[in-house]
Design goal:
Blueprint (H helix, E strand, L loop, with lengths): L2 H18 L3 E4 L2 E4 L4 H7 L1 H12 L1 H25 L7 H29 L18 H36 L5 H7 L2 H23 L7 H15 L12
Helix pairs in contact: 3-4, 4-5, 4-9, 5-6, 5-9, 6-8, 8-9
Length: 244
């Protein structure tokens, strides 16, 4: 194993350790050092509770960092698989773009969760019941999670992925890329068929799992899924052999 591979594994391990043993807490609305409580984190999930509390108070900052750090790692991991090297061009602008998408995810997840939860059991969506997350049974929680995931992905997912692809083109060209030029260069098979299938077959089930989690941990799950997103956005369909 190369040194870069070892560092890559340690990066993920450190990220997960910081979340699980999170050493900060909220005191009177501000973040404060709480100390490294290993026993409490293992026995009572103290670190995770602290993490959730900080995310609740600083949702956009934490959304930027969570998605930015993991999705950028996904970019590097993708490059490692392609070239054998972790060296990734334009890493800083890609990190900033992923971070901004993390801010967007923070808002959109809350938007669809609140909206779907309010519509459940009404004539607009006569499935399930509207209830606070903490009071839902498992079946109610699963129904809520699927409802939210279904509508979020059907409305938001494809434009989001296409938007991120446009940012990649801008970063690559180092200039503004107009809509006509962008659409001329995208792979029609990928964006005309593959991404639509991915939305239905992967993202709806994946985010159904995400929305069964407490609200403060959904963007963390989204950050983990951004690793998969990095791979999905670079998949190229196999070309069919030319007819004889």
């Amino acid at each position: 194993m190369k040194t870069g591979d070892i560092l890559g594994v340690l990066y993920v391990a450190a990220y997960l350790a910081i979340v699980f043993f999170f050493p900060f807490k909220i005191v009177e609305g501000s973040i404060a050092w709480s100390g490294l409580d290993i026993n409490g984190s293992i026995q009572n999930f103290t670190g995770l509770k602290n993490f959730g509390a900080v995310v609740a108070v600083y949702p956009y900052i934490s959304g930027f960092l969570k998605v930015g750090l993991l999705a950028t790692y996904g970019e590097m991991l993708k490059m490692r698989g392609r070239t054998g090297s972790w060296k990734t061009p334009d890493l800083l602008p890609k990190f900033i773009v992923w971070g901004l998408f993390g801010v967007l995810f923070t808002y959109v997840f809350a938007l669809f969760a609140k909206g779907a939860g309010a519509m459940m059991g009404t004539v607009l969506w006569p499935i399930g019941v509207s209830a606070p997350y903490s009071e839902m049974t498992f079946i109610q929680s699963l129904t809520f999670a699927f409802t939210t995931s279904f509508w979020m992905n059907m409305i938001f997912c494809y434009p989001m992925m296409l938007g991120h692809e446009w940012f990649n083109e801008v970063i690559k060209a180092k200039r503004f890329v107009g809509g006509t030029e962008f659409l001329e260069h995208i792979d029609k098979k990928v964006w005309g068929s593959f991404m639509l299938k991915v939305t239905v077959l992967f993202w709806i089930p994946a985010h159904t799992v995400t929305f069964t989690l407490p609200p403060d941990y959904r963007i963390l799950m989204s950050a983990l899924l951004s690793l998969a997103l990095g791979f999905i956005l670079t998949v190229k369909p196999k070309k069919k052999p030319a007819a004889a």
